[in-house]
Amino acid sequence: MKNKFVLPVVVLTSLLMSGFLSSCKKEQDTLARITVLDTSGNPFAGAEVRVYGEPTLSPHPEMIMDKTLVTDSQGEVIFDFTADFKLGQAGFTVLNIEINSGDTLAGEGIIKIEEEKMNDETLVIQPL
Predict the structure, then answer these.
(1) 120 phi, psi to nearest 5 deg
(2) Cβ contacts of 66 within 8 Å, gap of 6 or more
(3) What is the pLDDT of residues 73-124, one digit of tens each?
């Protein structure tokens, strides 16, 4: 007697191994776009933007999130946290923002980073 279940089992196994029936959810990018404006509301190019986590434990562990970029001609920087986010994780992080331009202009703020989306924050750089 022939086993009529062999072919379906072989096909199903092949599909599982190829990833066809594995998780269909593709991870989306987790990004933070920070726009820096001057006091007149114009985009501010060339500002250094730092985002970092503030440890809540004392003594605190090593800083995990601490990144710095420089604004483009539109006054924007985009930080990519996709590699830091783990699919299935509930929530992501809140980061401090510091902006500086030389010794005369600065600003600060906070951004809540939600997973798998573009997170936007706008800050004004002001004289010290």
Answers:
(1) -115, 145
(2) 50, 51, 52, 53
(3) 999 999 999 888 776 655 678 999 999 999 899 999 999 999 889 999 999 9
Nearest to 97 by CA among 124, 61, 57: 124
Q: 26-127 architecture in CATH?
A: Sandwich (2.60)
Which stretches of the chain are DSSP H helices?
Answer: 6-18
115 C-beta neighbours (distance < 10 Å), count: 21
Per-domain boundaries in the chain: 26-127
Closest CA to 83 of 45, 27, 12, 124: 27
Token output for 86 = 């783990």
Please report where in the chains the tokens 């600060």 appear, as a residue: 108
DSSP assignment of 60-125: PPPPS-EEEEE--TTSEEEEE-TTT--TT-S--EEEEEEEEETTTEEEEEEEEEPTTSEEEEEEE-
How far the first Cα of the chain sits from its last, in Å, is 88
Taking only Cα atoms into account, the Rg of the chain, rounded to an integer number of angstroms, comes to: 23
pLDDT at res. 83: 87
